[in-house]
Amino acid sequence: GRETRLRVVLRVRPLTCTETRRGDRQVVHSLGNSTVHVNAARHDATFGFSAVFDAGASQEAVFEGSGMRQLVELAIDGFSCTVFAFGQTGSGKTYTLMGPLIQTETRPAAPGLLGLMQRSFACLLEQSRSRGSDLALSASYLEIYNEQVRDLLSPGPPCALPLRWSKTRGFYVENQLSVDFESLEAIADLLLQGSQRRRTSAHALNRHSSRSHALLTIHVRSRAVSTRPAPGTGCPSKQGTLCFVDLAGSERVKETGSSGELSVEANSINRSLLALGHCISLLAKPRGKRMHIPYRDSKLTRLLARSLGGSGVTLMVACISPSSRCLSETLSTLHYASRACRVTTRP
């Protein structure tokens, strides 16, 4: 019940080969003390976060330095935990969460390149064994595409699912499939199966641009073996969740060269991200000065309501490009992340 600030970390990806060939300048520099400096024409600003990972940071360094391991432990202890990555399209969000984009059952990612998700799964199963807990684990995976909620694990073509609200559960997705798993291989297969069904397209800024917001939720039900009571007296248990949110990237239609369906998708993405940013701006105000928080403005904000302003524990990973060409979007992400640093929840 103690008030806790959102933990916000920043990851700066390297300049791409295309950006280097084009002659883009690097305008974002890590100062080494959890701060970054933006140095460009008419822009000279410094931003501070819980942690900053520069272009040389490994996937393991991001996992250990972001506090992800502690989030896994809290989920086992019965808390509702969420990590979400946000930033401009092509800034490295999906890579940070999942590792390389091209992964199949026959071509898995190299261990060093695995993202926060796979490392968290391994940590979850390792913690389960070391704590001597009797854990029941299941996963659900959905995407929000053009304001439709679709199940990525159910068989057949993805179909829209209704989003409901109740006093006890808050906002929830009706008829969403939840799949039990007991091994690292099983949850890795579910992640791969769902991510391959997710909507992606190519445009001028990103060959594998995510066209939807994706939410993978691990449901953790634990029962302490050492405190198993006598038959008929009930059994103490905890139910926690660990939710990974891969937000589609903000993008300017002019920069991406999008038209037709791509343009419609981009406008839908930007509207939902704008709604999320508006909620975060209002939540960043002191509790006594807050207005009504408009969670109902989008499907995304409804599903993240508990994580942002309720009883959850939340980690935000802001991903940015250091390129001078991306300066406007980079500054937007940095200001967005800075506001999020002031948001508090009561886990």
UniProtKB/TrEMBL annotation:
Residues 5-343 form the Kinesin motor domain. InterPro entries: Kinesin-like_fam, Kinesin_motor_CS, Kinesin_motor_dom, Kinesin_motor_dom_sf, P-loop_NTPase. It comes from Rynchops niger. The gene is Kif12. Transmembrane segments: none annotated. One of its GO terms (cellular component) is microtubule. Keywords: ATP-binding, Cytoplasm, Cytoskeleton, Microtubule, Motor protein, Nucleotide-binding. Pfam families: Kinesin. GO terms for biological process: microtubule-based movement; mitotic spindle organization; spindle elongation. PANTHER family: CHROMOSOME-ASSOCIATED KINESIN KIF4A-RELATED, KINESIN-LIKE PROTEIN. This is Kinesin-like protein. ATP binds at G87, Q88, T89, G90, S91, G92, K93, T94. It is found in: Cytoplasm, Cytoskeleton.
